[in-house]
## 1
Amino acid sequence: MKRIYSPVLIAGLLLAGILLLTSHDSPAAAGPKRLSSFDPQVKQLLAQMTLDEKIGQMTQPDQEFLLKAPEDIQKYFVGSVLSGGNSDPKEGNSLEAWTNLYDRLQTEAMKTRLGIPILYGVDAVHGHNNVLGAVIFPHNINLGCTRDPALVEKIARITAREVRATGVQWTFAPCVTVPQDIRWGRTYEGFSEDPRIVATLGEAAVRGLQGLDLSSPLSILACAKHYVGDGGTSPRAAGPEGVAPAGPGASARLRLDQGDTRLDEATLRRIHLPGYIAAIRAGVGSIMPSYSSWNGVKCSASKRLLTEILKQELGFEGFLISDYNAIDQIKPGDYKGSIEISINAGMDMAMVPSNYRNYVRYLKELVEEGKVPMSRIDDAVTRILRVKFAMGLMDKNRSQLADRKLHQSFGSAEHRAVAREAVRKSLVLLKNDRQTLPLSKQAARIHVAGASADDLGNQCGGWTIQWQGQSGNVTPGGTTILAAIKAAAAPATKVSYSRDGTGAEGASVGIVVIGERPYAEGVGDRADLSLAKEDVEAVNNVKKAGIPVVVILVSGRPMILSGVLPQADAFLAAFLPGTEGAGVADVLFGSDKPSGKLSFSWPRSNDQLPLNLNGPKDKYNPLFPAGYGLSY
Ligand code: GLC
């Protein structure tokens, strides 16, 4: 007998199937566990906490200032500690010293009445870049040129593992900024000027850092930053507070960093919000508001941005961590008033490296005076504790100290191989006349020149061992571009080097590696993106030798090439490749073809700036458009 199913039954089954697939808890939609699913445990703990203990969870000093009063970590019930860009263990910068520092502070923190472990945060923005011997991956500007989310996730996973090797469980990354003006010193911390690339790669980075299970001992807490519009500020003349910009543009003072982003809300959302929507989708547990302002209001003071849009509209369930002393900038000279505004706007934890005692004192007074409601304190602490439960920090059966077995893979050849792959895939070939590249491995002699040919620090850029980074042999285990060329060339090939490019006569080919010296944040703000005189001279000296000239640019952004591009037969943009210079040689000698595509528009001259895809189309006339890149 033919069974006839009623249309109602069929529709009901279909609806049930759809609901199952789209419901958050169904295995089919398996993603990170929602942070609010930990609220029952959070509420139970919160109910036991004193006001002092709650405020302690909202306080993040820097370890270097706790040295003067180690008892403060217990006295103030501190819930988190950071190491800023230059804040290394007092015993020195080694894997062992970092691990001992973490264990010592965590042990102290867990002696408090409730024994709530600390979250230890660092800026692991391209590997565990504070620590000597860590693999330094290419910066985000390079990763943007790969357009490869799987690679970005793999890099983030390795970074998480190397960070965990020191016990540290939190990185202030990924930076999902969308730089609109490459004169900004933080351009290289961005994946791209294109918000779609930023969203895709930012989501991949969060997935890699946090994994699908934030409680994994190989996962670390990610922090999407700097919310919001940090890369869209308007240039302003650098006043007396202005930092003298690095490089030849020093005379032309200009400030972009920590400026004011003047956009209507629709444009702000279109260009600068996608990275945060993607990061929240990936389950990001923390977000860092920007030093910068939106239409004159500090992001760290904006209830519209922090609470209404991020927490209420977008449903962000984690916590907000302020930038380094960013709260102080809200009402200069009135620290207590600044704290009141920021916490009431929705800030949950304050990065208060040295001034943490005053922060704790003022916040307690504000609560007692009724100026900061206890409900706001409870919301902030709930958000912080959600993350700690999700990470397994509250699991009494689990050690919260470092897993030193991870030291074996720290800086390993296996990790470096992934970084080398990222270097290869991030290089952008801008010019290759007469098939100058790839180089023959049988060339009789290769002459290498330029200030960045044999300089690991220049290859790595800022946020490397030191906050600002520095030129020179900054960390063990890396390979400079010169060393990589020597290793890749045939044994019979002679590889000579001169910084200024002289002595190239008679070589088969000349390779000139030029570009920027390391910088970070506002120190890198520059009005003039011309190349240093020394770099132009090195290219000219090799050109005078009458041999093919390959120019490699190591820089945190596109630069003005009018002085060197005509002399170059081939031109490779390497941006900031990090420690694994061998990836450059892989492409130079053709064992791998260049596949990178520009993630930023390349200007012809300074006066075109700012120049990007989001600007007026009739003014868009770059030397090389975003998306450009040749291959063999
Ligand atoms: C810095 C940066 C931020 C970093 C923080 C901690 O000033 O703005 O990106 O995470 O301080 O080092």
Note: The longest strand covers residues 509-515.
## 2
Amino acid sequence: MDIRLYNTLTREKQVFSPMNPQRVTMYVCGPTVYSYAHIGNARPPVAFDVLFRLLRLAYGEDHVVYAANITDVDDKIIAAAAETGRPIAEITALYERIYREDMAALGVIEPTYRPHATEHIEDMVEIIGTLVAKGHAYQGQNGVLFHVPSMNDYGKLSGRNRDDMVAGARVEVDGGKRDPADFALWKAAKAGEPAEARWPSPWGEGRPGWHVECSAMAKSVLGETIDIHAGGLDLIFPHHENEIAQSECAHGKPMAHYWLHNGFLDIDSEKMSKSTGNVKLVHDLLKTYDGETMRMALLSAHYRGPLDWTEALLAQAKATLDRLYNALRRMKDAEAADIEAPDGVVEALCDDLNTPQALAELSALATEANKSSELAWPRLKGQILAAGRLLGLLQRDPDDWARGDASDAGRIDALVAARVAARKAKDFAEADRIRKELAAEGIEIMDGPDGSTWRRI
Ligand code: AMP
Ligand code: ZN
């Protein structure tokens, strides 16, 4: 079973070959826990959860070690604490809990490790010390900086040339930087900053920079070189580039062999941003949509491409799940064969996590199940469930899923009744509006002598 993954570092799809198939290692940059996660933030954990499941299938459940960190020290967290007057630890514990609940609702399985930045400060100090000793870092006015020109192949991940990097960094030339591209490893504590956010170091009290947090956590829980390192596209530069610089200059070996990046999620074709007010929080969306429907929507596009989050996308995801669960419901009384996910689904995922193709294969199985005789049900049910497990879908009792439909039926009944009432009151515009609203959901109202009924078309 060859797994091919697109590697940002080599800019090509490569056959995945772990250093040690008994211990395949993967690290995904996690959230900074000072507020709710938005649906874009859910894309990396969901996409790489599918990779985690695929690797477990290929190498065995106990042979894949997956770490996804929690960034619980950061300028934004300190700012949130100052703004609300609440202790930092209270804020980070609250939003970490909510994050984990949100991810569980999206069917994300717990990573093997969830390292917290605050638990690894000594490891960060150690890496910074090594970098200083090796001449890759120096003390500036406000802490310790990594000296970018000290690394020959700096920029290899993002492919940015020096002029681009310097242009991006010029705005913040200060603090005794020797080169405009140099970046912070250790930030000296400023007057008035809380005791909770400062730690001792050979360079005075302060806190680590964001990039070195991941270098230290990846090393501590997984090792100096790991197989896969992943995150969103926006992390390629500077975050991952700087992680590479720190880890490779400190340890003298590659930080990771495969670098994977997911594309961005937009809302109604627009970039999600606080300024346009179109930020959709996972926590809020879960009040309206089922977590499994949201996961299906996230997996409907290839992880590297863009994903446009719209009402239509969610309606489509729900309809796809309805169809799959209906096929399972039809085969309710059959005993599922204990078989592996069908080749077509596994092959699609092995091709750089092609989830749209895997879902098409799953859909074809449902079509087959709807046409087949009971003799084929044990195999088909077994295959659909195994494919669902690999994708993190379809593990609910199909009757439970249908009961979700039943409450949907209650809502439709209420709309149909409202339309009858509107007609009685000669409010034909309102009656027409309701008819159109239901038609948009694929529901047809049938008016008969005994009243109005409806059906899905
Ligand atoms: P942040 O909390 O901003 O560091 O983001 C956490 C993770 O979410 C990172 O891996 C980001 O690359 C990713 N991310 C943030 N916004 C989006 C988005 N709109 N679409 C996809 N991924 C995103
Ligand atoms: Zn990171």
Note: Residues 29, 31-32, 40-41, 43-44, 231-232, 234-235, 262, 264-265, 272 surround adenosine monophosphate (ligand 1) (CB under 6 Å).
